[in-house]
Design a protein that fits this description.
single chain; 112 residues; two-stranded antiparallel ribbon
């Protein structure tokens, strides 16, 4: 998307740079909010020196189930522009696989 069509550009995730410039999305759209949620899920608590409480706990090697309600609460506290539906399901064949799906919708456009 070019800057010409966007009032308030935010870098898209993952960051992409071409001869036309960086790919951007409009602030407070579903694409922008989804990018923020993905970045939150990819960041472990303590990884950012500026905001050590940002992100999610490292779920690797955790006892399953992971508790979808807890994940919902973590995401909701860090991204107030979104309403989440988080569900979790253990694989029926391999009980070491736990699938967590996160769905989101916009709560309110233009919030800070």
């Amino acid at each position: 998307m070019s800057y010409n069509n966007i009032d308030t550009p935010h870098f898209d995730f993952p960051f992409q740079l071409s001869s036309a410039g960086a790919k951007v999305v409009e602030q407070d759209t579903i694409d922008d909010i989804a990018d923020c949620v993905v970045v939150t899920l990819l960041t472990h608590v303590g990884w950012r020196d500026e905001v050590p409480s940002f992100g999610v706990p490292d779920f690797a090697m955790r006892k399953q189930p992971l508790n979808a309600d807890n994940i919902d609460q973590i995401l909701s506290s860090q991204e107030p522009r979104a309403l989440f539906i988080v569900n979790e399901q253990m694989d029926q064949v391999d009980h070491l696989i736990d699938r967590v799906n996160v769905g989101l919708s916009i709560v309110q456009k233009g919030s800070a």
